[in-house]
# Entry
Amino acid sequence: MKHQHCFYTSFNKAYAGQALMLAESIRRQYGDTVAIVALLIDRLEEDEKKAFAIFDKLLFAEELDIPNFDQWLFGLNIVEAATAVKPYGLCYLLKHYPHVTYLDPDTVIYTKLDEIVESKESWNIALTPHQITPQKEDWVIASTEMESLKFGVYNLGFLSVRATAEGIRVAEWWRDRCYKYCIDAVERGLFTDQKLFDMAPAIFNGVYILRHPGYNIATWNIREREVVFNRDEGPLSNGQPLRFCHFTKATHIGAAALDKMLGSASLFEELFYSYVSQLQEKNDSLASLDKRWAFGFYESGEPISNDLRKKFRAAHFDKPSNFNPFSSPSLFIE
Amino acid sequence: MNANEIEKRLDLFFDSEFYLKSYPDIRKAGISAKTHFVKLGWSEKRRPNGWFHEKLVPADMITANPGTPPYILFLLNLPGISMQKFEQLCASTVLADVGHDNCWDCDQMREYFNGHYYRAKYSDVNPDTDALIHFCEHGWKELRDPSPEFDTAYYIDVYRDVRSASINPFVHFISCGIKEGRKPKAHDPVERKLLRSLKSFTDISQEYKRIAPVIKIFPDGNLFSDLLGKTQSTNGVVISFSHDDYMTHTGGVQKFIKDESLLSQEAGLNYLHLCPTLPNISVISEGHVSTFLINCTLDGKFVGTFTASELEEVLQNLQSKRSGFLKVAVIHSCMGWLLDAMIRIVQVGFEKRFFYAHDYFSLCQEYRLLRNNIVPCDAPPLGSHSCNICAHGPSRAKHVGNFSRVFDSLNPKIIYPSNSAKLIFEASIPAVAKNGMLIPHLVVKRLDEPASEIVQPTGKIRIAYCGAPALHKGFVHFEKIVDHCRTNPNLEFWHFGDQNTELGGVNFVPVKLKGGKSIMTQRLRENEIDLVFVGSTWKETFNFIAYEAAEAGAALIATESSGNVADFVLEYGIGKTVPNWQACIEILEDKNLLSQVKTWKESAARLSFTPNKSYLTAGAL
# Structure
């Protein structure tokens, strides 16, 4: 085993630019001392793989022995699918590395994650909450704390797991729950893979709730983090080293959300627009990559609607059979 | 409040001239306007001045005080407006902005709408129009701002629910947005604008590739015979490199090259200028000398397009015919160049080599050294924290590596046009930078007596922005200053340049090069400009505007980060430097501004300016 630590991210080709930017940011900090794995819920042609050479390994969801893969996947939209495969990737990687950290593709690390990678504490999994301090203003509470109660207290754009017995138990629990419950159904108390983790501190040992202000900085917590640049120390958040940012929706939508939440000047705003600019450049360099989701179409080339996926899931999830739903639209539509 | 104070307010409030002009019956009757209004006029709904309207008094207050004239209630309570605003209103001559009758939107906005600001900013709005009605009916849909405190375009951009509801965003903000914690404008609109303009150089480079090239194949025989013919009567050839054709593009570097060309010819030298046929903001990393196209201008005349290999051959032939004839090579800019081509051309035989530090392109592709386009970074070491968070950081190592080849191969002498540029180069690439010398474009001297007549301000202080309305030159800062100060009766704003932005409340004066010479000084002097704002966000290596302004007898306000401009202002005491545009507003609103400007102008008038002679000053010959 070459590496003690493995970072991985899960994405489909539409997020290839983000995933590559994340990988480059990890390489800038760690060089080749860590492994970086790409978990793809998509397919790549042989010549397309060259663009992903920065990763030590390309792990395809299809190769992870997910039961009834085609039927299971057919019942998920793209966001649900990209998150539902995360625990399968984790279980696989924990067999190969003693410590595995997941990062969403739209994150960028700016300094080494010492509190995780170099930690001597005996924890099994580490989580970062969306917010780490109570808010005061009503509208901020509504936009942050109340949202976290709906979508999950911990942001699953980050998860670090050690290959201890308890760490593996967590990974397998997450995998099993995600198989059935990784859906966007907030009204049922479910939100993809994330809301499930509200349970984790109650049912597992050694859950490290990492309240370091330099981790997972995003629009949902920028209100509680003073992000500045210091020429000698680099980027800081509440006086501590800024570790990584999470640039959800790096478009005008994200920009508007950021504007809404920013109370005063913040380095985060500069980092956001810098990210947007670099992502544009990265995506331009990937212009030849066919970014359509390989599992977004029937074999005939006809697109599959999310509505149909939902109906299929409701009708077939508990009654798996051998047919391949991707083969034809007419097989199950009544 | 006692009767005397009410009387005092009434004197400010009542406009006799307006009243008599508006009501000819009173004028004809020859009675006191004020007496008529107080006794009868108010009950006849006559207006005491151009701006007051009963709607400015809350309806419930009128209902609760049935016997009291609404204007008295207004004077007693001044609902929602301060005494200062009251005095401003009283001093105004514009019509009241009372809005539509029975319009809920107007009722909401009335107290917050700033008619003065609106009229000053939007001069196309008919001055006889009720500005509030204009905003209510058209203005918000045209993204006009109702006050300096509310940015309509921003609000609609950030709050998509407001945009999709197609409602007046100002009304939304007043009626519920404030309570919901929504922001009326960006916390730093200037920085936001700069950040939004951030693009990678790869993307900008792609845009350049879409520009149609100027290609003109050498029309008369070949360059060699032309050169050889011309050189019969001269002492040698100077070759210079830059990013574009200095004869057709305007700018500081182009002006400098033009002067350099004339100086060379006066010194008995031919001046061969080369620029890439295909302009670009990057150096060209993929290409070959046999196919890289170069546009050539000889002694100010465009002679044709050649490949780098052809040029190399021409110069080799010339060298063999007239040994020692290739005298000096001056590199002004490497943008758009295949650096190998440049190196090979210089290495044909130009022994004296100069590299002009007009900008910081050799230290980073972000040639102004602005981290993410906004923060001066001073070219920190590769891999620094600053590069790590900058959009231009990842490509910098390769870029700097390319320039190392240029410096290693050619070993040119660096010419710094200012000390601020020299300091940055010395800190960033000390080994290369030590082979350099400081030659400012202009030599400044302080005289005992004023060099020209001092025209001090007598009325409003005239403040100007000069040059292209570019972000990094600080035009966006100027916009914010104007936005805050345009209703200040003591100030007047001007813009001198070749591109009219039609900024409301700003007088535009077109200024173009005349016979290759700038007429900025002349125009500033003609228009008696008192103060020039230089808001450069980067450490300028040399900015002519500041010197032209001082030569015109104007004082300067410059940003602290403006490099040689800030140094110039402080060294000669001709103005002030500021950390940001907000600090500039504080200076402009200071009650001592007039006396300060007079002092600064006296200092500026005592300066004299003499141009340096480029590489000739460096003793190249």
Summary: Residues 126 and 208 of chain A are 4 Å apart (CA to CA). The radius of gyration of chain A is 20 Å.
